[in-house]
Amino acid sequence: MIQVKSADEITRMMKAGEIAAQALAYAGRSIKPGMSTWELDKLIHDFIVSKGARPSSLGYCGFTGSACISINEELIHGIPSKKKIIKDGDIVSVDLTVEYDGWNGDNARTFMVGEVSDEAKRLLKVTEEALYEGIKMAVAGNRIGDISNAVQTYCEKNGYHVVRKYIGHGIGRDMHEDPEVPNFGKPGRGPRLVPGMTICIEPMINSSTSEVIVLPDKWTVVEANGNLSAHFEHTVCITNGEPIIMTLEKH
Question: Do 231 and 193 touch, CB atoms closer than 8 A?
Fold first, then answer.
């Protein structure tokens, strides 16, 4: 069942979203060559806790990190590890969710480390732009399929492949709520958007195939051909006007 939030609930969710955005920005500033993903995860954990919040991913279905940290061909759900070292030229996806006062905010970004390839720069640019193409369609009266189709169309016209196995979702008191928010689909299909709905739009894009493989750790998802992947995400609230991005860092 889709949960429509009240004005007070949205205000409280905004605080969770703000902390999530701050934590993600802090992660981006902290990434450097030679750092393990475990070290980065600990920095993220300590930052979130310092804000009086909780990393929602920690312990979720047995996940051992406070954030999902995925490198290069790893699309999502990378488990932080002391053995996984970030190198110059890598792209690193950080996906983190924060719970504050019983409400969740979820966001993700793929960061460039040092000098990355032109191929990587273009993939990240297109994936982030696709996120905002989807957000443009997140207005009352539209349907989920309008968001999905906007993301898919933008990525595919730029030569990239939309992952179908993993999708966006609703969010609120739980990290994952209804409705499902795919990155592919037909306009005019799916649940209608109404004010008070809060959803996560998160393009997960591969360089050379829409197929993915789950590694033996049962968490890490990689591009099936071993090529680059990217992931960007915002938590968005549907209003009577323009959509509100709830995971923006306030300065």
Answer: no
